Amino acid sequence: GLGDVYKRQATGGAVTFWSARDPRAKIVLALVLSFALAFAPTRRVVPLVPAAVLLLASAGLDRRRLAALARAVLLLWVLSLLANAFFIPGERLGPEGLGVLRPTRAGLETGLAQGARLAVLAALAAWAAAVTGALELAGSLEWTLRRWPALRVRAHRALFPVVLSLRLLPLLLDEAGRLR
């Protein structure tokens, strides 16, 4: 049916456990986990990275897209780690001759935790985007707001350009690939 078409669009052709779930539930799950992560103590963030990788792996993404996402998140993590390691004041580590090029212990700890938080948040966002198609999400939002006609019309007006642009994006990428 039409729902299967949306599920295949959301996961690039694969129908996974997650793509078969209600889009509102998936978005609520992603939001709840994101807020829990934002307020989680620093020492509990790093152990969540393997769980986020497992969640993302279960989304049905092909290996190439998963590897590209992992590289982007790793780059952001390294940049966050470096910025925190050198700009947060504290006890500097390493030989004295390096001067300001020595990272601080507090900076390294903060950079590791913030990088992990960033990686898990990126994984949650990528998971939600991978398992929920734009049309499926727009339809579920309109269905949720069906009892409030004024809100439904506003949601439709706000989502319509987004859905159109997301539907047009694969065509633009395909055309860009032909120009190369």
What does this structure look like?
It is a single chain. This protein has 180 residues and is mostly helical. It has seven helices and no strands. It has helices spanning 2-11, 23-38, 49-57, 63-87, 105-131, 134-144, 149-179. α6 (134-144) runs antiparallel to α7 (149-179). It is elongated, with a radius of gyration of 21 Å. It starts with a helix and ends with a helix.
Characterize the main sheet: none
Helix content: over 70%
Whole-Å distance between the termini? 36 Å
Low-confidence stretches: 1-11
Summed up, the helix count is 7
Amount of beta strand: under 5%
Which whole number gives the mean pLDDT? 77
Q: Structural class, from secondary structure content?
A: mainly alpha
Rg for CA atoms: 21 Å
Name the shape in a single word. Answer: elongated
Count of strand segments: 0
What are the secondary-structure elements, in order, as H or E?
HHHHHHH
Mind sketching the topology for me?
Layout: H1 2-11, H2 23-38, H3 49-57, H4 63-87, H5 105-131, H6 134-144, H7 149-179
Note the main attributes of this structure.
single chain, 180 residues, mainly alpha, 7 helices, 0% strand, disordered N terminus
Give a short summary of the structure.
By secondary structure, the protein is mostly helical.
